[in-house]
C-alpha cells in the first residue's frame, strides 16, 4: 500500500470513529425537560410526560402520567422559567420580607454570583411549594402540592388528559354560580390572610374552573403581609381584579372597601 493510500485509510478510519463517537454522544444526550423531572420519575410519582397544559409568564405546566402507586391517572408538573425569562421582572416587590437563614446562601444572593442566582431561583420554587402546602392544609381551594426540586413543582392535576381545567377567564358562569364563586374567592383571600399570605398576582387567568369548582393556582410571588410594605396594594389589586371580572355578570363590589376591611381585620387579629 502506498503512503498516500495508507494516510487516506487512516483518515477514513478516524472519520468513522469520530462519527461513531458523535452518535454515541447523541444517544446519551439528556432531554432537558426529562432531566428536570428526573426526581419525580425516580421517586415513583410519574411515568411519562404527556403534553403541555399551559405555558405562562413564569412557568410551563405539563400533564404527566401518574405512577400506578399514586392511584390517580395524571399529575401536573410545573417547570419554572429562568429568572431572565420570567414575567416578574421586578422581583424585589415580592421578595421583600423573605428571609434567607443560611449565611453563605444570603451572601451569594447578595453578591449576585452565579451560585447566588441559582439559589434565588430555587427559593422561588420552594416558596410556592411551601405556600401551597400551608394553604392546602388550611383548607384553601388550591391544588394539592406533592413534591418539588430546584426547578419544578409537582401537584394534583385538574381536568382530563386532553381537556385540562379551564381558566375562569375563559368560561361563562351560570347566573346562579356568580355570587357563590365570588364569595368563595373572597373567603379564600381572607383565609390566606389568616395564614399570612397574599397572592400578589390574582386574576381570572390563574383561577381554574372544573365541574363547577374553582381552584386558585400560581403562588410563587405570594407575599407575607407582616413583612412586605407592598402588601396592602397587592391585596387591593388582587381583589380589584376579581371584582372587575365579576362586573361582567352585573355583580358590582367596591374592591378598595373590601381590601380595607380585610386589612384592618388582619392588623387587629380579628380574621
UniProtKB/TrEMBL annotation:
InterPro entries with a match to the protein in the record: Kinase-like_dom_sf, Prot_kinase_dom, RIO-type_Ser/Thr_kinase, RIO_dom, RIO_kinase
Signal peptide from the UniProt entry: none
UniProt cross-references to Pfam families, sorted A to Z: RIO1
GO molecular function, one term: metal ion binding
Domain of life: Bacteria
Record domain Protein kinase: where: 47-271
UniProt cross-references to SMART domains, sorted A to Z: RIO (SM00090)
Protein known as: non-specific serine/threonine protein kinase
Organism of provenance: Dictyobacter kobayashii
